[in-house]
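so my prof wants the structure for this chain in the tokens format not the other one, which i didnt know existed until like an hour ago. anyway here's the sequence
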Amino acid sequence: MGSVLATVGLLVTLATPAGVAALDLPPTQTGRYVYDLARVWKQSSIDQAQAMVSAIRERTRAEIAVVSWPSDFSSISPQEALADGRTIMDTWGVGRAGVNDGLIVLFDMDTSLRTGGKHGQVTLVTGAGFRDLYLSDGEAKSIVDDAMVPRAKVGDLDGALIAALERIDAAFLLGGGLIGLAGVAMVVYFAMTWWRRGRDAAIPLIDDSVLLPAPPPGLTPALATVLRKETIDTDAFTTALIDLGHRGLMVFRQTEQDRKKVDFVVPPAPLADPGTEHARRRPLGEAEAALVEAVKAQVQADGNGILSNDELRKGEGAKLYAAFRKDLGKAAKASPWFRDDPTRLTGLWLAIGIAAVIAAVVGAFIAVFEDGVDGETTIRLHSEPMAIGFGILAVGAVIVILFSRFLAARTPDGGQALGMALAYRNTLRHVMRQAPNIDSAVATAQPRLPWIGTPDELAVWATALGLRKEVDDLFKRSLDDTGRSASGWSPAWYVGGAGSVANFGSVIGSISTTSASSSGSGYGGGSSGGGGGASGGF
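here's what i got, hopefully its the right format
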């Protein structure tokens, strides 16, 4: 909770007379929370206050001391009362070490008490942790001014005490409610963000009537994958690599001994066969161009033109993937098909959801569980409000995590482009399922998809449109008993193995998510600043 009196601790230190801190306090007693040292309360009020503080402590583990103190001053200022309360807190050690969740409820009486008068200061002094978790200085001042001072001024010190504890108890209950409200507010704000920025435009009817002679200008195979999935994942990375391969800018070498190992090879010059030359006529996307340059930089450092599988799995693959996601996100935002960078908005809300889950789990453990007999962890009594609040926060966080990926909204142009892409996919799926081999599939597809002129182009666009299995099945049907294509075609960019696109995608996914190892960990130790509070005279 925020504080409206952030400088109170400093002002108290500067304004406190030298003799105020010398309080002759008795030792505390285990299980006793109310100390009527000035003898101003009825026994029934003391018993009621004791029960109320005990219940609060069972529910929250926060420590509260209720004290009436007979001072030796004819009048007491608010600063002196705050200093007395702080002295009591420090001397008795009210509040858990490192948490500082202590509260002093102090009735600091002046010398008129000895002549039948009842005047002084009513004061709430909070530890820094208590102030942050439960009661801000503004709320403490409200309790003093509204609940305590009016009753104390008419001599009802019992009523002032009970009213203050009732308001303090309500603040603890409110804490659970506020935590739950924070979870609800997070989900509501997430829904508003989706409503304003995450809703997709309508997708037109998916049939051959939306086919065009070529994909829209600028729609690379990788962007087509993002358009279809509304996220940038390893499928987009795999599609981009195959796109670079079928252009002859990269070659992927699979070892025969282990199909899960693929080296990236950059040829000295782009491959010169007719298929790759035909593919290079199509403009290269900015993200794909940056990717191939990044690979070139790595292989030039070694001087052999090869980025080995071992190097990729030691973290180089993850670095390439992270940079590609960033570049493709920028390309998507710059295109007419997305309202925002698919990685930025979704990543922000995913991080918010994960942080909220962690906060809910840690907060619930602190607020709900305690060390019981023999060191066993038990559920603290009367902790239901806080448990419910943290539970609502956790549920809200899970909702945000699950639905954050849907924030990458397509524009109306994006909806139209997706409709065309899905129509292309329908056509390719039908053609590939019916064709006896890949050359026949290309010939059959060309009348409706004239921009697919080679088996490599069919392979890369089928991959982009989510047809990995179909293209692998088609490739297998193209092989004769000796394992060679009847037409002599094989992907020049994929060396070794059977040229399985699905297997290649699996390998790329593994490479992309293996991060470089690191050492060092831990959380920093925390400390608390000064506390706060409020005081009022009567």
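also thought this was worth mentioning. Residues 223-338+453-512 form one domain.
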